[in-house]
Design goal:
This protein has 140 residues and is an all-beta fold. 0% of the residues lie in helices and 51% in strands. It has no helices and 14 strands.
């Protein structure tokens, strides 16, 4: 079923883990405009996708089992992949200002903070004490 959503303008993007797809829906026409399939690890495929958009509508897809972030234009045409030696099983991605935050819970560096080009800026480590989670706070 559905695994993640992102909205940009009048477009709704939905990722689905069951079949490794990302769909674009028009909120004004209330219909699916495009669906890309990616179940797998080959070029053009993704596995367990989560997504977000930036201010100009690029769609960033955390491709968990393939250890990469895939970037697509607003029409879901593939632009490029971002990989990093510390990016292991990225579970989610978010964009804020000029930074990309990538959640990698299988890695001791739990949150990677990258430039939009994929260069490492910082990493955040989650410290657990009982039920509390302590996050270092900073902004790009």
């Amino acid at each position: 079923g559905p695994h993640g959503i992102a909205i940009h303008g009048d477009s709704l993007y939905v990722s689905c883990c069951a079949d490794g797809t990302v769909s674009k829906f028009s909120l004004t026409e209330m219909c699916r405009v495009r669906r890309i399939r990616g179940d797998g690890s080959n070029y053009g495929q993704f596995d367990s996708p989560r997504l977000t958009t930036d201010t100009i509508g690029h769609v960033y897809i955390a491709d968990s089992r393939n250890n990469r972030i895939r970037i697509h234009d607003p029409d879901l045409n593939h632009l490029r992949n971002i990989t990093h030696k510390f990016m292991s099983c990225p579970k989610d991605v978010n964009i804020s200002r000029n930074c990309m935050y990538v959640l990698c819970p299988d890695n001791d560096l739990c949150v990677l903070v990258l430039t939009l080009e994929g260069d490492m800026l910082h990493s955040l480590t989650i410290c657990r004490k009982g039920m509390d989670v302590l996050w270092p706070v900073f902004f790009c």
